[in-house]
Structure formats: structure tokens, C-alpha cells
Amino acid sequence: MTESRSVEEEENMAFQRVVNAFLQYELQQTQWLKGKQNMFRLGPKELDRLCGEGEKSGVSLVVSHLQSIKQRINTNQQFLNTVTLPYEDLFPNQTKIDPQVTNAPTKITAYHDEMEKVKSTLRQIAREWSSYGAPERDQCFLPLLNELKERYPTPESRSGIRVLNPGGGLGRLAWEIARMGFVSQGNEFSFYMLITSNAILNKSKEQDGTTIYPWLHSFCNLLKSEDQLKGCSFPDELPSLPPGSDFSMSAGDFLEVYTEPNTWDCVVTSFFIDTAHNVIDYIECINNILVPGGVWINIGPLLYHWAEMPGEQSVELTFEQIVNVIKSFGMQIQEEKSKTYECIYNSNPNSMMNLVYSAEFFVAVKPKL
Amino acid sequence: MTESRSVEEEENMAFQRVVNAFLQYELQQTQWLKGKQNMFRLGPKELDRLCGEGEKSGVSLVVSHLQSIKQRINTNQQFLNTVTLPYEDLFPNQTKIDPQVTNAPTKITAYHDEMEKVKSTLRQIAREWSSYGAPERDQCFLPLLNELKERYPTPESRSGIRVLNPGGGLGRLAWEIARMGFVSQGNEFSFYMLITSNAILNKSKEQDGTTIYPWLHSFCNLLKSEDQLKGCSFPDELPSLPPGSDFSMSAGDFLEVYTEPNTWDCVVTSFFIDTAHNVIDYIECINNILVPGGVWINIGPLLYHWAEMPGEQSVELTFEQIVNVIKSFGMQIQEEKSKTYECIYNSNPNSMMNLVYSAEFFVAVKPKL
Q: How far is B279 from chain A (nearest CA, A)?
């Protein structure tokens, strides 16, 4: 290692760690599952208590459940391999992990939080691109899409309207906007999201053609064992678009990519502003890139992602302060549009526990010249 | 340190750590608050954006907000000192922490998770003993209390009915049961809860006579700054009972304390069974201590507390498996009583984020001889 790496080298390393984490999923989850065989510390009598009358023995019930999880971990890995496939040759020096040999030596061990991101990427697919996610999407995407519809009621006029969606995740919202006829661009920072959205947007051949298992990774808050094993097919809609559509995804830090003033007619954000180190910078950037008369439509809570992270700047404003900051840039909040929506985020639809957000929706308008 | 400590020594040390964490609250929270002055990394222009029109400057707004938090941390410490007061002389060798000198040297530094427990104890007071907690209590205590009422409709008959509430927390549920006329005992394992419930149950002189600030500790998901500063007075009802009442709290591990068969008419549990290393042991114990014909009334989710804790046994059953285990002990589930209740747990009532549980309610009856 040299003392100071170039930005490009740093980015390369970060990207390599992400690809590596995707490839180590099965290895690590199989190890985790072995730990779960703790359950077998139960005696045969206790195991038999787990099953209802007339069923097979508790031992075979547990064995077959763990076996089912193991198979599904393998299926998830097959999908994750297709996601990372285009990038494997980028790192010739990395020991290739053979997904068939689960205890193959690896050069880099994925950290716990990296593996958590792989697992949350699987859940994000369910949220954005499966029919399971439809209720969640309706809660937070519909208010945004309806606002666009109301503001630009004539579909023919939309091909001249440029809409940006920072924090674009797996691209579903930006794609929905493109489908309505707008010029639409999603922007995303996370490599986990970027390589996965690339696979979904560009390689999906068949509606619901791929199945993954996003809810394998927790034994908690389950009503039934089968809830943990549920498969999730995607994409619920093929991400193709009519000819002449203008849809793109951009990679990188929102603040660095979007510096050109007066370029976007609309900025649409969902569960995004609290990913900032300093939300004031985001607001300043949004105000800057909007054309005069342009609108910012937002929905989301204020779960600041950098709060309590040692050494990281984290400016945690209240919603009231955010409204003040927006106004201080000269933007007008359309108060009559402001509303609070209850939104669930990235849940197992059958879980006995859910995070429920009171997401604030608002529309802010940059004054005309 | 000797090579092997007696159980008593171990318990003593654990207890000392808890008292120590209570006493270090102000010291650690003040340090945390200093870190939050990160906010001041904002320039004066940015700070001024935080306030609305006609208000004072952003700098003075932030300064006075942080000052208000600091004062309230001190008030919380005053209360925590009264909680630990009876136990301070138990540890003559420990350096006494002077709450007035926030950077006084301390012998033991409280761990992060210990401090989290002190903060969650403050929130638990709001949940169990303040009017803020009434909606949460109604969600999960009322179904239990109503079931008791329905089963024992004549108040006069209740003085002969022995009701046990394991996982008793700060004693509110057990006290409510005692107030209805039952013989009532709460059992609790956590020293954090035990010393705090002792203070509330035995030293409260005046309704709403003490005020603490349970929601100081997060800047996230706030609508207004004042939501973070809200005070919470307690107890909303004086925990006195009419003469002749039979109410007690017991300390210790449920499985170790309750081994005498056929001794309780009712076991009432709320958000308890998922605190087990092995929930089958809890069910076996409950079945054992109930008199023939006795009932177990339960409400709660399955957020197993020991899941994913390295080296700890954690048997994570689904709700369906739990029902099977209960039946396997010969108990009958009264299916028509089973119901799912939406319950919030220990939230800031104004937070933009809430954990919502689908808590399963059921009644299980031990057969008569």
C-alpha cells in the first residue's frame, strides 16, 4: 500500500469490496446457518414439541427447514453471481471465489456491515421490483408520481420535462417517471445498488423471471416457518420502455455529480435527504440545479444515516428547521400540499415487527426569474 | 481477581456495574453532547438558515437548544442519583462519582450498551408510569387486564387469586393487577428495572411529582426541536394500594425463582417470552407453576433477545411452533381468544419513526386434574 492513494484507487478498492461481499454471501450465510444449528442443542423430546399432531418428527422438521434455507442461500448466490459477473475481470489479482466450494480461501473477508448491505440489497429488490413491494411503493412513490401527474397533466408535454431522482436505489422510481413520458434520470451512490440495478434494468428478459429469497436471514418475528422461506419473483414489470424514452441512471455522489445550475425541471426525492452528512448542502444543491420555476417534490423521514457515527459529520435538523432552510434559499413551500404519510420500509410482509415512518411530503418551488 | 468467582460475587459485580452506569449518565451524555457541537461546524450563514423569519440568530438558537439539553441531562442525573442512593454504600471501594464534577475520574467506565440501558430505562418510565405511555399501555396491557376481568368478574373473589407477571419491568402491570384486587407478584431480572421500580413504587410521594426527559438522546426523526426537550412527569398515578392488598416484586431469573409446582392461578406475560434463551423452558416453567385449571395470558411479538449474540443459546421459534409446544405440555389454547394487536413499544410519541409490533395475544389453560 502506498501512503496516499488516488481517489480512483480508493474508489476501485471500495468497489472491489462490494463485489467481494456479493461473492462471499453464500460462504458467510452458510457459516451463520451452521451456528443456528444451535437449535439442535434441543433434545429429541424438545424437538418433537415443535411440530403439531400427526406431523413428522421435530428433528426432521428442523433438519428440513435448515436444509431449505441452505438451498435458498445457494439460489440467492446464483443471482448475486449474475450481478457481479460483468465486473469480475476488473480485479485480476483477486482470488476468485468458487461458489461451489463454500469454504474456499478468500483474500478479503467481507465485514459484517458489508454482508448486511448484501442482505438489504436482496430485500430492496423485493421493495422496488416485486409485487410484494407494491404496498410499500404505493405508500411513498404514489404521492410523488401523482404530484407529477397533476403538475404535467398532458402526457405529450412531458418529453420536454427533465426529472432527476437522487437516491435512486434500484431505479424503480426513476423508471416509473420515465414510463410516464418524462426525461428521467436516477442518481445513486451505493455500488451495491448500482450493480444490482444494472442487472435488473438491463438484463431482465422475462416478467417475474428470477426468484430470490430476501427473508431467509432472520428467525425472529415469524408466524410460520414458511414465511422465512418465501420466494420473491422479479421484476414484476419488465423494465423496458417505449421507443424514444429518455431514461438513465448516473453513479456517484449527488453533490459532486450535479453542479450545473438551472438544469432540471423537477427533483424528486424519496427517503433521501437524511442520507446527507449535511442536509443543508443537499437543499442548496437542489435549489441550484432546478430551473427557475422548477419544483422539488420530497417524501421521507429524518433518520439521519450518519448520526452517532464517530468521526463523521452529521447535521441532524428537525423538519421545522429543514422548512426554514428551504425558505432561506428563496424557495416556496406549497403548504397546502404538505402531508404526513405512514410508510413501511423494506419489511418482510409477514413479519410481526415493522418500522413505520411518518414520512413528510412537501413540494417546494424555486421562484421564476 | 480470583480464578473463579462465586455466583454471589458475580452478581455483586453486575449490580455494581449497573449502579455505576446510572451514576455516569451525565458524564457520558455531556461528552456526547460536546460531540454534537459538530453542528457548529456550520458557518454562521448556514446556522442562520435554521431559524424562521423574525426569530433570533441561528447560532443563538442552536446554543440555547444544546444548553437546554445539557440542563435536562443534569435533571435526569438528579433523578438517577435518587434511584441509586440506597445502594451506594454497598460498594465502599468504588470511587464515588460527584455529579457536579462531570469529568471526575471514575474507576469503571460504563460500556456503550450499559449507557443505552440507562437511557432505555428513562424511556421505560415514560412507557409504564406516565400519561405519555397510556396509549402504549392500553395497546398491550388492556387486553390482558380485560381477560382477567372477564375471567374473575367479582372483585371480592379476587383476593384469593394469585397472579404472577414475569418480565415485570417497572411493575406497572403487576400493580394494575394488584389494584384490581388480585394477589399480584411481578418478577424482573434486570437490575436497571429493579432499582428504578423500587424508587417509583416505594418513594413516589406525589402524583406527577418528578419530571425526567426521556427523549433527549436523539436528534433524528424530530418534527420540532421542542419534541426532543419534552418533559415527562411521573407517576401518573400514585402507586399506593388499598389496605389488605397483596402486591410484591421479586428479583431474579424467572426459571430459577419459580420452581414450585401448582402455585399460581394466572401467569400474565407481556413482551416477555422472547427474552428467553430457550422459550420452551419458559413454557415448561409456566405450565409447571400453574395450578390445574390455571391460565396463562400472553401478548407480544417474537423479537428474540439473544438472536445473533455470539456464544449465547438462542432458540428462535415461530409463533406456530410455540403454539405446538404449548399444546405438547397438555395446555389448551383458547383459539377463539387469539388475536393480533398492533403495539408500539417505548417510542417518543412525536417521533417520525416507530417500531410497530403485531403482537400475538392468546390464552392457554392448564387442564384440571
A: 11
CB contact under 8 A, B318 and A225: yes
Nearest-Cα distance to chain B for A155, in Å, is 35
Q: Count CB atoms within 10 A of the CB of residue A31.
A: 12
- In a shared domain, residues B141 and B221: yes
Q: Look up cell 413501511; give the residue.
A: A344
Residue B325: its chain A contacts at CB < 8 A?
Answer: 49-50
Q: How many CB pairs under 8 A join A and B?
A: 156
Nearest to A39 among B42, B219, B315 (CB): B315
**Closest of A299, A279, A298, A304 to residue A342, by C-alpha:** A299
Q: What average pLDDT does range A272-285 have in this prediction?
A: 97
Nearest CA in chain B to A220: B303
Q: What is the ipTM of this complex?
A: 0.90
Question: Does B229 lie in the same domain as B169?
Answer: yes
Residues (pLDDT < 50) of chain B are 1-2, 95-105
**Looking at A91, A110, A129, which one is the last position of a domain?**
A110
Distance from the Cα of B239 to chain A's closest Cα (Å) equals 32
Nearest of B50, B76, B282, B94 to residue B189 by alpha carbon: B282
Cα distances from B182 to residues A263, A285, B146, B238, in angstroms, run 71, 64, 13, 18
The per-residue pLDDT for range A309-336, each reduced to its tens digit, is 888 889 999 999 999 999 999 999 998 9
Specify the DSSP element, H or E, that contains B359.
strand B353-365
Same domain for A216 and A247, yes or no, is: yes
HEC letters along chain A? CCCCCCHHHHHHHHHHHHHHHHHHHHHHHHHHHHHHHHHHHCCHHHHHHCCCCCCCCHHHHHHHHHHHHHHHHHHHHHHHHHHHHHHHHHCCCCCCCCCCCCCCCCCCCCCHHHHHHHHHHHHHHHHHHCHHHHHHHHHHCHHHHHHHHHHCCCHHHHHHCEEEEECCCCCHHHHHHHHCCCEEEEEECCHHHHHHHHHHHHHCCCCCCEEECCCCCCCCCCCCHHHHHCCEEECCCCCCCCCCCEEEEEECCHHHHCCCCCCEEEEEEECCHHHCCEHHHHHHHHHHHEEEEEEEEEEECCCCCCCCCCCCCCECCCHHHHHHHHHHCCCEECHHHCEEEEEECCCCCCCCEEEEEEEEEEEEECCCC
CB contact under 8 A, B221 and A302: yes
Region A278-307 average pLDDT: 97
- The string of pLDDT tens digits covering residues B153-174 is 999 999 999 999 999 999 999 9
In B, which residues are within 8 Å of A303 by CB distance? Answer: 220-221, 352-353
Q: What is the dihedral of CA A135, A138, A141, A147, to 10 degrees?
A: -170
Clarify whether residues B224 and B298 are in a common domain.
yes
Query: Which residues of B are less than 8 Å from A325 in CB distance?
Result: 49-50
Query: Which one of B38, B51, B274 has the shortest CB-CB distance to A313?
Result: B38
**B224 chain-A contacts, CB cut-off 8 A:** 318-320
Q: How many independent structural domains does chain B possess?
A: 2
The C-alpha atoms of residue B226 and residue B215 are separated, in whole angstroms, by 10
Shared-domain flag, residues A83 and A134: no
Closest CA to B277 of B317, B231, B229: B317
Across the interface, do B307 and A223 touch by the CB < 8 Å criterion?
Answer: no
Q: Does B221 sit within 8 Å of A352, measured CB to CB?
A: no
* Chain A residue whose CA is closest to B351: A358
What are the b/e assignments for A98-116, b being 16+ CB within 10 Å?
ebeebeeebebebeeebbe
- Considering the domain architecture, whether residues B166 and B259 belong to the same structural domain is answered as yes
| A chain contacts of residue B302, beta-carbon cutoff 8 Å | 220-222, 352
Q: Is residue A201 included in any domain, yes or no?
A: yes
